[in-house]
């Protein structure tokens, strides 16, 4: 049931088994799953039921280190959270992401890759992804008739795009149902009150106070760190005031363009990189580092994309000329026929390609840009902080984003591997940015963040290494948990939400006692 500001909050909603703070990509699935299992769940959402205009202003805060766009533009405060903005691409972490430390001293993930895939399967069940669409490499091989390996060090990887990415809509029926979680909108959490050492007694919001046996922070990486840092500064009994990892090890993915492909055969490139359509789902194609190459060369993870540059202006001009002739009755029948045939020549192969081969490409391609997306190595120099210009109780969050430069070995390796493979296959002439080819950290100036905020409350075996334990409980507390990419000890290159959801459903098992039975 959704209770907006116009509706009174029943007393029963103020005392729950589990209080989930934040109704976004992970908060909604967590609340829905726990309610299905019979727990009394209250879901507190700081924003309104529909996205407000000018939402970015509320996200503003200080930014030091590299320019970090995601602080302001990469978050939405409304029911559905950032799924109101996101693309909905689901990408699993690879074996090396989960089982191989990205840098010496990095805390381990709390499961093997096989166990992780079990939780990913739970996510796919929840989101209604059909069984035979769950292994992108198998889909790729089936659709293209080719091996997923692309030379010794690269392999084809695919992103699955959710057909309905907005979780406020995807879960609308369950959120509105009487037996679903109690969803309270415009209930901005302002204070976590710890009456007894390590015990969260009450959550104070702009719509009054709430209590629960267990409380889960699911309000996005930056806000999770803000609320924890705030409690550490203002609540002497919180149990984690001295944790030196709070807010630290903040990560995002780095995106940039590292070169161009010239003289490429569009048909051959299209066969490799055009979108794949299968069972009503769309998959984007990328080339990723193989696990073996990462292990041999000690690289962080990364992926390259080939992006057709669109001559949209040229295509739009053709289309406009045709439509004008058709609908205005102007121009000779011969000219209209000529334009009509030109459009048929463009659209017929595209229609055939989509209907028969289940592939689709960007229209009017006039060149190929080579994109690179890569992992940021975790570093304590990259962190979330409370704005020192304000009192801690009300301070906004700020970001110091500091990729160290060590990541450039991965960019350099990807550039060399891609050049070698495309040249060997006669797919065109590769021209790489000299900074990328040399592994020069100056290339980072041409990169930007990806709105994939991770870390700040990383998981670890002990409080001397991280903020939450392997059950995602905040060290030093009895009943406070964290859900989301905030707990990641490393970031891969893969869009983070599928993995955040896998950890969240694992947490749901723990909170509902289903884990032992599984
Ligand atoms: C343009 C864009 C494209 C993206 N594309 C992808 C993609 O394709 N694939 C992918 O994996 N990721 C993508 N992401 C990232 C993805 O959106 C986030 O990783 C994901 O939404 C994080 O989920 P979350 O539940 O932790 O946070 P959110 O989805 O941000 O939800 C947090 C919720 O908490 C609420 N909240 C915040 N503060 C409070 C408070 N004090 N009290 C109560 N409630 C509060 C917010 O209003 C919000 O509803 C994209 C992001 C952007 C911006």
TrEMBL record:
Q: Where is the FAD dependent oxidoreductase domain?
A: 17-221
Which SUPFAM superfamilies does its entry note? FAD/NAD(P)-binding domain
Q: Mind telling me which Pfam families this protein's record contains?
A: DAO, GMC_oxred_C
Q: Where's the Glucose-methanol-choline oxidoreductase C-terminal domain? A: 382-503
The GO terms describing molecular function are: oxidoreductase activity, acting on CH-OH group of donors
Instruction: Check the record and name the InterPro entries matching this protein.
Output: FAD-dep_OxRdtase (IPR006076), FAD/NAD-bd_sf (IPR036188), GMC_OxRtase_C (IPR007867), P2Ox-like (IPR051473)
User: Which prosthetic group or cofactor does it need?
Assistant: FAD
Domain of life the protein comes from: Bacteria
* Family statement drawn from the similarity comment of this UniProt entry: Belongs to the GMC oxidoreductase family.
Q: What is this protein called?
A: GMC family oxidoreductase
Originating species: Novosphingobium flavum
């Amino acid at each position: 049931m959704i209770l907006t500001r116009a509706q009174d909050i029943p007393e029963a909603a103020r005392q729950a088994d589990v209080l989930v703070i934040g109704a976004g990509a992970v908060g909604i699935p967590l609340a829905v799953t726990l309610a299905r299992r019979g727990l009394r769940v209250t879901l507190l959402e700081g924003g309104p039921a529909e996205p407000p205009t000018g939402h970015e202003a509320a996200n503003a805060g200080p930014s030091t280190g590299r320019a970090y766009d995601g602080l302001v533009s990469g978050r939405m405060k409304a029911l559905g959270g950032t799924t109101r903005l996101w693309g909905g691409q689901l990408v699993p972490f690879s074996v090396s992401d989960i089982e191989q430390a990205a840098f010496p001293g990095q805390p381990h993930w709390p499961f093997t890759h096989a166990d992780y895939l079990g939780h990913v399967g739970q996510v796919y069940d929840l989101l209604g992804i059909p069984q035979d669409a769950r292994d992108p490499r198998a889909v790729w091989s089936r659709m293209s008739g080719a091996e997923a390996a692309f030379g010794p060090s690269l392999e084809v990887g695919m992103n699955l795009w959710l057909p309905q990415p907005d979780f406020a809509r995807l879960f609308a029926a369950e959120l509105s149902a009487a037996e679903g979680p109690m969803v309270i909108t415009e209930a901005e959490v302002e204070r976590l009150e710890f009456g007894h050492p390590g015990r969260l007694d009450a959550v104070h919001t702009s719509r009054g106070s709430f209590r629960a046996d267990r409380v889960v922070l699911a309000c996005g990486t930056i806000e999770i760190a803000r609320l924890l840092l705030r409690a550490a500064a203002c609540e002497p009994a919180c149990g984690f005031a001295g944790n030196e990892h709070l807010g630290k090890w903040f990560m995002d993915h780095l995106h940039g363009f590292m070169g161009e492909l010239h003289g490429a055969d569009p048909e051959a490139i299209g066969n490799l990189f055009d979108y794949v359509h299968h069972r009503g789902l769309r998959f984007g194609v990328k080339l990723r580092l193989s696990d073996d190459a990462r292990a041999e060369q000690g690289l962080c993870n990364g992926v390259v994309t080939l992006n057709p540059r669109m001559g949209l202006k040229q295509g739009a001009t053709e289309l406009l000329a045709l439509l004008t002739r058709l609908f205005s009755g102007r121009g000779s029948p011969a000219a209209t026929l000529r334009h009509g045939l030109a459009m048929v020549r463009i659209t017929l192969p595209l229609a055939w390609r989509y209907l028969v081969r289940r592939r689709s490409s960007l229209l009017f391609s006039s060149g190929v840009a080579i994109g690179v997306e890569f992992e940021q190595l975790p570093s304590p120099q990259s962190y979330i902080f409370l704005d020192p210009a304000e009192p801690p109780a009300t301070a906004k969050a700020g970001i110091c984003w500091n990729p160290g430069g060590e990541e450039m070995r991965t960019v350099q390796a990807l550039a060399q591997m891609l050049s070698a493979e495309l040249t060997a296959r006669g797919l065109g002439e590769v021209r790489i940015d000299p900074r990328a080819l040399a592994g020069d950290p100056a290339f980072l100036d041409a990169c930007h963040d990806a709105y994939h905020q991770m870390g700040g409350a990383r998981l670890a075996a002990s409080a001397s290494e991280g903020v939450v334990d392997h059950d995602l409980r905040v060290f030093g507390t009895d009943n406070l948990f964290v859900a989301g990419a905030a707990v990641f000890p490393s970031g891969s290159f893969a869009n983070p939400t599928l993995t955040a959801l896998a950890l969240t459903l694992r947490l749901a098992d723990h909170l509902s006692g289903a884990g032992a039975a599984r």
